[in-house]
Design a protein that fits this description.
By secondary structure, the chain is of the alpha/beta class. Helices cover 21% and strands 20% of the residues. The model has no long low-confidence stretch (mean pLDDT 89).
Length: 112
């Protein structure tokens, strides 16, 4: 392998960390998260930088989904759609295990 290339980086621990910090001060959450990362870009996959970037659900990979996050006017980290759960999700196919915030959904496969 060539030096400097990173293959197969699992960002699930970062995403779970961010979800666990919903309702807390974004400045503190961001400071802790970025201090442990080589690249802060994955933070912004879940956390919207502007109101236009907000998404209820963010697809990460082929069958992993996470709640979209944003920073409220109060400075706290919040979910874009706090009411969504794994039971609200529907899989794209019957062959994969789909997850929402780490929780499997769509088992057994249900057609829309």
């Amino acid at each position: 392998m060539r030096q400097g290339l990173r293959h197969g980086v699992d960002h699930t621990p970062l995403f779970r960390f961010l979800l666990s910090k919903v309702g807390q001060s974004w400045d503190a959450v961001y400071s802790e998260a970025q201090s442990r990362l080589l690249d802060e870009a994955p933070i912004w996959w879940l956390v919207a930088r502007s109101e236009l970037d907000r998404q209820d659900v963010v697809r990460v990979g082929e069958s992993s989904y996470f709640s979209g996050l944003y920073v409220a006017d109060t400075g706290q980290l919040e979910k874009v759609a706090p009411h969504l759960t794994a039971s609200d999700m529907r899989p794209d196919c019957p062959c994969c295990t789909h997850t929402f915030n780490g929780e499997p959904f769509g088992l057994p496969f249900a057609l829309p």
